[in-house]
Write a structure and sequence with these properties.
two-stranded antiparallel ribbon; Type Iii Antifreeze Protein Isoform Hplc 12; alpha+beta; 5-stranded antiparallel sheet
Length: 294
């Protein structure tokens, strides 16, 4: 009877030990994963920063973020912020980047363009532009959909990842988080791209249908690679056999009218014969008829 009571006790002890071992292994794996994550020292907006605001201590704070969530142009030195202004509205907690800050009075588009980049605009409508929710300073993916060729279904490709939006239509800045009504029917989007990306986008704009996909502000640009663009080539039509030669029409016999002989025309009368014994005599410019004695 005592042994029967001890069996559940032993089973409970074994289950508790097994659960403890599994929990310990799980905690160790979490610690190992945390230690392998590379952290990066950056500067963030301590509160909402309006456009054209001087970035002083009340707007800037230091923070550490995983390196995979930080853009390459993130501000890592305080000197990069001193004396700079916000070019767009920066939400609280957002990492400060070189594309979001600039010198005072830098309102023109070239001043907002990062070094080594080019500004290029594409036509876009309300649906393809994420219903007008994209704002200057956001990052988007550019998706190209080639035209249908025959019965083959076209394959969409994300040809550009994390392209910086410089302007929406004629607006190069947004002072509020709510999109303006003018952006609901936007016509152009200006992006900052490398020269090679400009060539790719120009070719895709002529040969495909373009769409924009809005990216999260904290997602790394390198989270997903760009995809190659494959344009469909129409299948070659098989050579057609030459049409058969038309049959020759049946020969027709044409009756030839009978030729009726006609009497020959009378010959013209012979010229009058000169009298015998006369020959022309030429003397200077006068011609006379002379006689020859027979």
């Amino acid at each position: 009877m005592k042994n029967a009571r001890r069996v559940p006790l032993f089973v409970g002890i074994l289950l508790a030990l097994g659960t403890g071992v599994l929990l310990l292994n799980y905690l160790n794996s979490l610690r190992a994963s945390v230690t392998t994550v590379e952290m990066r020292h950056v500067f963030v907006a301590s509160r909402d920063v309006p456009a054209r605001a001087l970035l002083n201590d009340s707007f800037v704070a230091e923070a550490t973020r995983p390196a995979t969530e930080v853009d390459q142009d993130a501000v890592t030195d305080r000197k990069q912020v001193d004396g700079k202004y916000s070019l767009i509205t920066i939400p609280a907690g957002s990492v400060l980047t070189q594309s979001k800050i600039g010198e005072g009075g830098a309102d023109a588009l070239p001043a907002r363009l990062p070094i080594g980049m080019r500004a290029v605009s594409i036509s876009i409508d309300r649906v393809k532009g994420v219903a007008g929710l994209i704002q200057p300073g956001d990052r988007v993916d550019v998706i190209a959909v080639p035209p249908r060729v025959g019965s083959e279904v076209p394959k969409a490709s994300a040809i550009l990842r994390g392209a910086l939006v410089l302007a929406m239509g004629n607006a190069v800045e947004t002072t509020s988080a709510t999109p303006s009504p003018d952006n609901q029917n936007l016509t152009t989007v200006t992006l900052a791209l490398t020269p090679k990306q400009v060539d790719l986008l120009a070719s895709a704009d002529l040969n495909t249908t373009l769409r924009l996909a809005l990216r999260p502000p904290k997602e790394s640009i390198r989270a997903y690679p760009a995809e190659p663009l494959a344009l469909g080539v129409p299948d070659k039509q098989p050579a057609q056999a030459p049409p058969p030669a038309a049959a020759a029409p049946p020969a027709t016999v044409v009756a030839t009218p009978a030729v009726v002989a006609t009497a020959p025309k009378p010959a013209p009368p012979p010229p009058a014969a000169q009298p015998l014994g006369t020959v022309p005599v030429i003397e200077l410019d006068r011609t006379e008829a002379g006689s020859v004695r027979q």
